[in-house]
Structure formats: structure tokens, C-alpha cells
Design brief:
- This protein has 1009 residues and is of the alpha+beta class.
- Helix content is 21%, strand content 29%.
- It has 26 helices and 48 strands.
- The strands form twelve sheets. It has a seven-stranded mixed β-sheet with strand order 3-2-1-4-7-6-8.
- The longest helix has 17 residues.
């Protein structure tokens, strides 16, 4: 108990009476209300602070409202004489003596002057320096040291040569503290103003750059004496997004944002040069900060003053330790006489820490009185208020503060009550686990053994039956508590009645890791359509309550009333998994009221259970079986979550019009029509006696078109006659195959599929049609940025003794944060393709078809590109060029929904070349469409970009297995090819792939039925 009391005393007294320096070197007309509010925030958190302002035009009259309220403030007229006096004994004194020169020659003189005053004042006297655009959110004691500075991000990774390790992090002196004579401050002055490197034309050369270089120059012992705080402490928003803090939050949750900032940050920097012309909108983060931390009613007020005062206090206090500081209790207003504030507790006790070291139990009382004749005098005492838990029967206590005019305690002018929540008595944390938490005794933990595979729902019910606290917090075992994991905020939302006098039952936090991973804030409202589709989506059901929003469902990170879960809303034990939707459907039917609270979050440190590494992971794979059971229980046909279909009990239309094109020796291309999103594609080479999925398992569940999230409550859909395509590879030459395609919905497939039989080409037939000079390899660098760490080699297959090509990027990933490219390129003059096209009968589709085999050896990168690429240049007399084919004319390119894309023919170019057009799916796009990138690859032979680039990616998740890829391009009848390039490309940090069997054919696609 004594040790804890000393800790709290240190927290309250560590930064007692700080000296805070600020500088303003521009006319008084540029000093705005928001600059005054910077002082409010400092005096709120440090009412005993001595603020010293060096100013060229401001006077003490500018700040009369603060001095009238009793706050200590000194304005130093920054004349040349005063500045010379300041500089005496500081490194850089000679720079100050030449101020007339710098005033004349430097466009940034006043900014550099501010830097000099900052460093010199700290060097001589110590204290804290602050810019006039930094709003303090917490006591400086939270920084953890007397000499401190904050890290900030430049937002330009790798471009800052003097930054800290990482390339874009530097030390920003917008708020910094120091003891007198500290080496960091001394060396900052020397580097900025004495090194001979001073450049009057560089804006930040004597501020962030100088102090960061000075930090680099410190020895180990000196570095250990500096607290270099993380970015979130002083710069939670960067200069790139700081404007967001001044704009009204669309969700109306500025209060929750400030709650979150207060848990993590000491200051909020506004980057005045970026935001000074942006108005502070009502409902913005900055607006909430000013309302919360202002200490004077109107710093610009002129004329007579009214006698008024009000008390600010926290909305609630959560107590998890016996003794705790009571933050942010302050009085605001104008006094003409002494006031008294009576503070009392129902069950606990309170105390005002002073400079005394005596901490006897008698100093703790259930009631204390604070008196003073100015707001500052009263707030200096209130800033040292602490609370000690008492024996409350239900874990609920309160601190009441009453303001009286004068010394007599009669009728209070103001009354404020602060709820106090004893978390140890109020809430039990309930965690399900199987094999990721070490069992055994831990203080405060109770492990409940359960029957093996009892299921999530039954396990939760058994735990709830054992819980005696009023509330329960349910979590999974891979969640981590952070500074934003405020259980007391969730309890406060449930303890507070709404405007109708009713309580809520469930309050949930947020899951930012999953929100970033899936781009979904999983909470909102749900509807059930006429076709019995359960549709979950964003939204809420009314005005905010205690910083939270009324919704129908939330993630499984919520606090709920224990008696609700024990007696009325138990989990359905038939659902071992997939219980979530069922739980909240029944909750709404029972009238249970649910909140989502944006100011509270828990970090989801999710393991990759989908890999099936553990027994638990394998059992998680049963979730779809239980989702089916859950939907059938409520008579539902489909579950749509935020525009995506998560379960569907109905099957789509059957596959129809199945046919095969682009038959090669080892690959064929299948096309068919169906509205389904998923298909099962099987192959048989023994006349149907045995079957297996195509492409080494890809055909087990093939999805040619991604689900595009939709606002339709029925979920995503495709046209009945949507086109689908798969390139089947890994086939044997001159072999008859039967392909069977089943339509499905990602969860189930139709019983009967559609068949198509085809025989692959022999190797000799394929080679005879190949227009490439060398089907195995040909190396070229043209058109790509090649790293010196890349290698290209001709290797021999140990099994077949055949030669192949290997592209390898060796060490670039460990040395540079940049991708490198290794490409194998075959140049194809237009003579052969044009000659072959001219010999084609009119009924044969005029197509270019390219295929290659490739094998991934290893890639050390999460976002590489491993692809086949075709580039084509057309001759100047070509009248038609190329266009995307209709499937009945030849090969097909797709949009994201799988339907064919038809465009006008590409116009030929006689001067200057054409824009290269492509999409991620390989479909050409009109030049006016803004959603597709346009690349310009220069061709040294033709001196113009290629007219068309078409590409397809390999599957990077499959290693050491040969994959084939095929590209096709339809040509107009009068197209004239000038030049082509076929490339196998690897772009990554580090990796290796092997290439073989490049094939280019013209007009050999089979006709569709």
C-alpha cells in the first residue's frame, strides 16, 4: 500500500511548477484564439506552471485573462538588446550578434530566431519549450524524464539522409524539455549556429535537422539521459493528416477520439504552417480538446467581467489499484471573492498530495475542502487529488464535488458527481482457449477445464455460470490489452441511463487490426429480406450514448450484464462455431440493447488458423457447417456480411455452353457460361475412370471472378450468362482429357457437372507452330530496370537433362527497401506473325496466343510480381490494330465480374506511339477510364511505347511446381504487327524462378460451338 501511494505521489508531483517557454515573432494580428488555447491546455494540466513568452509584438495585456485568473505568465519583449542578453553564454552567440544580416538575407529568419531562443533558454535555465500550435493533453510527468523530445515522421521514407534509422523518423523540437546545460541542447546550438553549415535559405536546417544530428552525436551515456518519445506521444497526427483534427467527425465521435488520445499522447501538434487557415469546426477533435481543457471562459474578452465559475471533472474513473490519481478536476471562471470546493466520497477516501512526505492513514478522509481566491490557486490543489478504494458493496463508488461562494458551506453553486468503478469487483474477463494459453496457477486467473471439443458456445455458458461479478468481458485468447482497452468506458456506458431512463445491456470495443485487415468495422444493423437473406451492414439506431452508438451486433469483444448471459441470452450449444449471428438475432428479439464504443479497442494478434497447423485450427475449419445449421435454425437462405456472401444455402444456375480453345501440348483453355461465383473443375485422362482437380488442386474450388462488395442486401450476383475462363496446365502432350465443370456458391456445388473432351497437341506439333526462335530461353534487359544483384543463368534439369532459364534476385531485399526486376525477354519481329496471319482462312480467328511454363523456387516478399507479359507494336499502315475478343470469335479477356469486355478497335498511330492500356485482370480499358494505370515502356528500336501490353500473374502461393500461363489477343483483319516481345518477369526484393517452353502461335484457337 505504501509503495503504491509513493508511486501516485510521484505521478502528481514529478512535474511540479514547470517553466514553459513559448515564442511569437510575428505581429499581434497573427496571434489567434487557437494560440491562446495552447496556454489553456498547459495551465489545465500544470496550473502551477510559469509560462514565459518571448514576443516581438505581444504584451502582457494580450494575456490579461490568464493573469487575472491567477496563472503565472511573463512576457519578455524580444528586442535586439533582450535577445543579445539571452544569448550570452550560449553556443551560437556570434550568430545572434549578426542578426541584422540574417534578418536581411534569410526568408526564414524569424523561424530560425525561434529555434535559437528555444535552445538557448533550455540550455541556460532548463524547463520545457513548446510551439504555439501544440495542445497539451496530459501532464508532462507521463513522458518519464526531465530531458525529452518527440519523434515525428516526415512521410517520405528513405529521402531523409539525416533522419534516425528507418529513413523517415526525426526528432522534432515542437515540444521538448531539458535540464540546464544538457549536451543535446548544447550540440543542437553548435550544429545549427556554430558549425559553419548554417544556411539561411533552409527552413528546417536549425530545428529538427540540428537536434536530430545532435542526438546522433551523443555518446551512449548521454543518449540514455534523453527520452526520445515515440511519434504517438507528441505527434499522433503527422503534418500530412493534421488537418483532419480540425474538421467535424462524420461519425460524431470526436469525444471518443480525444479519450483515445488522452490514453496515449501528451500533446497534439497542429502544424500551424499547414492548418492555421483551416477553421476549427464544431464537433472536431480540436474543438473537443479546447472544450475539455480550457481554463478561462474567453481569453479575448474585453470590458466588465461577470462573476461565474464551473467545475470540470472526468466523466468517470476506473480503479484497478487501491490508490489512484483523480485527473482533470478543475475550476474555470472569474472570482471576486474566495470560493470553497467540498469533495467527498461514499465509500472510499481522498487526499491532496503536497510536498510533504508524510503519508499516514489519517491523511486520507472521506471529505476534504479546497479554498482559494483565484482559479489558479484552487486548481493547483485540485491537481494533486488522489483516491483510495473503500469497501463498496457492489463495486460502485462516487466522488462528489460542490462549489460554494465564500468560506461558508451552505447552498452549493455547482455540484458535480464522478462515478468510480472498482474493476476488480465489477467485471470478470472470460477467455476461451484450447492450446494457446499456459494452464496452471496464475494470480487473478481461474482455469475451468471442460470436456474436449465441447464447443465455443457451451464453453462460454459454463464460464458464465461460474461468474459472480455484475459484468463479464468476453474475449478470445489472441487479443491483447492496449492503452485503448478501457474496460471502465464500457462499464460507464452500461451504468449510464439514456434520455428515456433506460440502461443498455452490451457494450463492445473496436478491433482495429481486423478493420485494417478486412476494411470492415464489424458492427452495425442487420435486416432480413423477403427472400430470407440475413444482411449485416454498417449503421446505427439512434443518437450517441456515452460516446457509443446503438447497434444490432458487435464483435465478440464486449462487456455484458452477467445475469443477462446467465438467465436470458445463453449461447446455443448446438453451435460449436458460427454462433455469432444466431446470438445477436436472438438478442434483438429479446429487446437486448447493444452499443459499439469507438473510443475503446483491443488488439487482435490473430494467428493464421486457416493454415491448419494445430488441432484447434483444424476444428475451426468446421465453421461453415455450423453456419449452415445457424441459418436453417432461423429459416434463412443466405448470410451477407458487409456486401459479401458468407454462407449460401441455394445453388446457382448450371454450367452451360462449355467449350475449349487454345489447345497446346501442356495447356488448354476452358470457357463456359454461368452466374456462379465458384466452380469445381475436374480432369480425367483415363476416360472418366478417375478424376482429380485441375492445376494441382486449384480446380477444387475455382473462383474466376472476385466477389465485389455490394450495397444490395441480397449480396453480390452475376449475370445468368456470365463468361468464365480457366487455363488448365500441367497436362501431358498428345493425351485425351475429359474436363468436368460444376457450378457452386463457394460452399456447395451442383450434383451434376458439364463435360468436354479434348486431345492435347504433341510436342512436335506445338513446336512446328511456335514462332519463337528459342522455346526454352532468350535473355534480354530491354525496357526493365535491372538491379546489379540480379542474375540470369542457363541451368540443366537434373531429371530430364534439358536446359532452362533461371531469373534470380539475390540480396537486394536485405540491402534496400525497393523492388528489383529480373526479366527474360524474347524479341519477335513482325515478319513471322504477319506471314502466318496472311495464310489463315477467313473462318479462323485471328489471334496471338502466348504460353510459358514457370516454377517458383523461392520468394522473400509479401507483394511480388511473377508474371507472363506480351507487348505488341503495330505498323503505321495498320487499319485495325487489336481489340478484346468476343468469346465466339476467339479468346476472351474479362472484367472483374467475369463478363466480356468489348471495345472499339485501337486506332493505329503514325507518329509518337500509343498509350499502353491494361488492368489487373488483363482487360483493355478505354483511355478515359481513371481507374486503370497507364504505363509507358520505351522501346529503343521503335522509339515509341508499345501499343498494347497484356499480362497475367502466376500463383505465388505454390512453390516448386511447374505452372503454365496463357495470354491471348484478338487482332483486327487488317492488323499489321511491327514488333512483339514475350517476357517472363520477376519483380521482388529477393527470389528465384525458373522458366521453360515459351510458345507463341497465331490464329490457332478452336472455334466455340
Amino acid at each position: 500500500m505504501r509503495a503504491r501511494e509513493l508511486v501516485v505521489q510521484s505521478e502528481l508531483m514529478d512535474y511540479s511548477s514547470p517553466t514553459i517557454y513559448l515564442v511569437w515573432t510575428t505581429p499581434v494580428s497573427t496571434f489567434s484564439l487557437r494560440n491562446h488555447r495552447v496556454l489553456d491546455c498547459y495551465y489545465f494540466h500544470h496550473p502551477d506552471a510559469h509560462v514565459i513568452i518571448y514576443a516581438t509584438d505581444l504584451t502582457s495585456q494580450t494575456f490579461s485573462e490568464y493573469t487575472r485568473s491567477g496563472y503565472r505568465l511573463t512576457v519578455v519583449n524580444a528586442t535586439d538588446e533582450a535577445l543579445l542578453e539571452l544569448s550570452a553564454g550560449c553556443p551560437g552567440e556570434e550568430w545572434m550578434r549578426n542578426m541584422d544580416r540574417w534578418r536581411r538575407d534569410s526568408p526564414y529568419f524569424y523561424s530560425h530566431l525561434t529555434d535559437f531562443i528555444r535552445f538557448c533558454a533550455l540550455y541556460r535555465w532548463g524547463g520545457v519549450y513548446s510551439d504555439f500550435d501544440a495542445l497539451q493533453l496530459n501532464s508532462l510527468a507521463l513522458v518519464g524524464g526531465k530531458t525529452f523530445i518527440g519523434r515525428d515522421s516526415s512521410g517520405a521514407k528513405g529521402s531523409c539522409k539525416w533522419c534516425l534509422a528507418g529513413g523517415d523518423i526525426y526528432l522534432a523540437p515542437g515540444v521538448m524539455g531539458s535540464v540546464p546545460g544538457h549536451p543535446l541542447v548544447r550540440r543542437s546550438l553548435e550544429i545549427a549556429f556554430e558549425s559553419g553549415d548554417y544556411d539561411p535559405a533552409i527552413f528546417n536546417g536549425v530545428g529538427p535537422m540540428a537536434v536530430t544530428k545532435a542526438y546522433h552525436a551523443l555518446d551512449y551515456r548521454e543518449t540514455q539521459s534523453v527520452v526520445a518519445a515515440s511519434e504517438e506521444v507528441f505527434y499522433p497526427y503527422t503534418y500530412l493528416n493534421s488537418a483532419e483534427t480540425l474538421r467535424r467527425s462524420a461519425a460524431g465521435d470526436a469525444e471518443a477520439h480525444v479519450d483515445s488520445l488522452q490514453r496515449k499522447s501528451v500533446s497534439l501538434h497542429l502544424y500551424g504552417h499547414m492548418t492555421k487557415r483551416i477553421p476549427i469546426e464544431e464537433g472536431s477533435i480540436v474543438d473537443e480538446v479546447i472544450k475539455r481543457f480550457s481554463v478561462v471562459v474567453d481569453p479575448l474578452r474585453q470590458g466588465p467581467h461577470m462573476v461565474e465559475q464551473h467545475l470540470k471533472a472526468p466523466k468517470y474513473i476506473g480503479v484497478s489499484k487501491v490508490i489512484q490519481a483523480v485527473p482533470n478536476v478543475r475550476v474555470v471562471g472569474d472570482f471576486t471573492a474566495e470560493i470553497s470546493i467540498l469533495i467527498e466520497c461514499r465509500y472510499g477516501s481522498i487526499k491532496l498530495f503536497g510536498n510533504e512526505t508524510d503519508s499516514r492513514e489519517s491523511n486520507w478522509n472521506s471529505m476534504i475542502i479546497v479554498r482559494g481566491s483565484t482559479p489558479a490557486q484552487v486548481n493547483v490543489a485540485l491537481a494533486k487529488l488522489a483516491y483510495k478504494l473503500g469497501e463498496s458493496p457492489d463495486g460502485l463508488d462516487s466522488i462528489t464535488a460542490k462549489v460554494y461562494e465564500g468560506r461558508q458551506i451552505h447552498i452549493p453553486a455547482k455540484v458535480t458527481e464522478i462515478p468510480v468503478y472498482d474493476l476488480n469487483k465489477l467485471v470478470t474477463v472470460m477467455i476461451k482457449t484450447m492450446d494457446r494459453i499456459t494452464k496452471g496457477y496464475k494470480r487473478g486467473f481461474y482455469y475451468l477445464p471442460l470436456q474436449y471439443d465441447i464447443g465455443l458456445s457451451a464453453g462460454r455458458n459454463r464460464m458464465v455460470d461460474k461468474i459472480s461479478t455484475k459484468y463479464v468481458l468476453t474475449l478470445d485468447d489472441d487479443f491483447i490489452f492496449t492503452k485503448d482497452s478501457s474496460i471502465e468506458a464500457l462499464i460507464h456506458a452500461l451504468e449510464t441511463k439514456d434520455k428515456d431512463g433506460l440502461h443498455y445491456d452490451i457494450a463492445a470495443g473496436k478491433n482495429p487490426a481486423d478493420e485494417e485487415r478486412f476494411d470492415i468495422d464489424f458492427c452495425g444493423i442487420f435486416t432480413i429480406t423477403e427472400s430470407r437473406v440475413l444482411s449485416l451492414g454498417p449503421g446505427d439506431r439512434g443518437s450517441p450514448h456515452a460516446g457509443c452508438h446503438h447497434v444490432d451486433f458487435v464483435p465478440n469483444i464486449f462487456v455484458a450484464r452477467t445475469d443477462l448471459l446467465r438467465d436470458r441470452l445463453r449461447w446455443d450449444e448446438l453451435l460449436k462455431l458460427g454462433e455469432h449471428e444466431d446470438f445477436f438475432i436472438r438478442a434483438r428479439e429479446l429487446g437486448v440493447r447493444t452499443l459499439t464504443c469507438p473510443g475503446v479497442s483491443f488488439h487482435h494478434n490473430q494467428v493464421a488458423h486457416w493454415k491448419g497447423d494445430t488441432e484447434y485450427d483444424k476444428k475451426r475449419a468446421r465453421v461453415y457447417d455450423f453456419l449452415r445449421l445457424s441459418l436453417r435454425k432461423h429459416g434463412l437462405t443466405k448470410l451477407v456480411s458487409f456486401g459479401r456472401t458468407m454462407m449460401d444455402l441455394t445453388l446457382p444456375d448450371l454450367v452451360h455452353q462449355l467449350y475449349v480453345t487454345e489447345v497446346m501440348a501442356r495447356t488448354v483453355t476452358l470457357y463456359w457460361r454461368s452466374s456462379a461465383f465458384a466452380f469445381k473443375v475436374l480432369q480425367s485422362s483415363d476416360n472418366g475412370n478417375s478424376w482429380g482437380p485441375v492445376n494441382y488442386g486449384e480446380g477444387e474450388q475455382f473462383e474466376p471472378a472476385p466477389q465485389i462488395p455490394t450495397t444490395d442486401p441480397e449480396g453480390p450476383s452475376r449475370p445468368t450468362d456470365a463468361y468464365n475462363k480457366i487455363v488448365v496446365f500441367g497436362l501431358q502432350p498428345q493425351t485425351t482429357y475429359i474436363f468436368r465443370v460444376f457450378a457452386g456458391n463457394r460452399f456447395d456445388f451442383e450434383e451434376h457437372g458439364q463435360d468436354y473432351t479434348v486431345k492435347t497437341l504433341s510436342l512436335s506439333d506445338e513446336y512446328a507452330q511456335n514462332l519463337l526462335e528459342n522455346p526454352s530461353f532468350e535473355y534480354g534487359k530491354r525496357g526493365y530496370q535491372i538491379s546489379e544483384n540480379n542474375t540470369f543463368a542457363i541451368i540443366e534439369d537434373p531429371k530430364t537433362q534439358e536446359h532452362m532459364a533461371r531469373s534470380q534476385i539475390t540480396t537486394v531485399g536485405y540491402m534496400y527497401n525497393a523492388e528489383s526486376t529480373a526479366a527474360i525477354t524474347q524479341a519477335v519481329p513482325g515478319i513471322k506473325p504477319n506471314r502466318a496471319l496472311s495464310k489463315l482462312p477467313s473462318h479462323i480467328p485471328r489471334t496471338l496466343t502466348v504460353s510459358v511454363r514457370s516454377r517458383l523456387d523461392r520468394i522473400f516478399d509479401s507483394h511480388p510480381s511473377w508474371r507472363l507479359e506480351l507487348r505488341v507494336w503495330f505498323g503505321p499502315r495498320a487499319g485495325g490494330g487489336a481489340r478484346v475478343c468476343h468469346p465466339l470469335e476467339g479468346p476472351l479477356l474479362h472484367t472483374d465480374d467475369g463478363s466480356p469486355v468489348l471495345h472499339e478497335k485501337l486506332a493505329p498511330t503514325t507518329t509518337g506511339g500509343r498509350r499502353e492500356r491494361e488492368s489487373a485482370g488483363g482487360a483493355f480499358e478505354d483511355e478515359s477510364a481513371p481507374s486503370y494505370s497507364r504505363e509507358f515502356r520505351h522501346d529503343p528500336r521503335l522509339e515509341r511505347p508499345s501499343d498494347v501490353t497484356h499480362r497475367v500473374e502466376f500463383d505465388r502461393s505454390v512453390e516448386e511446381v511447374w505452372q503454365s500461363r496463357v495470354l491471348s489477343l484478338c487482332l483486327a483483319p487488317d492488323a499489321l504487327i511491327a514488333f512483339m516481345e514475350v517476357s517472363g518477369v520477376l519483380e521482388t526484393f529477393r527470389g528465384s524462378v525458373t522458366w521453360d517452353d515459351f510458345v507463341l502461335t497465331v490464329g490457332r484457337g478452336q472455334e466455340a460451338p
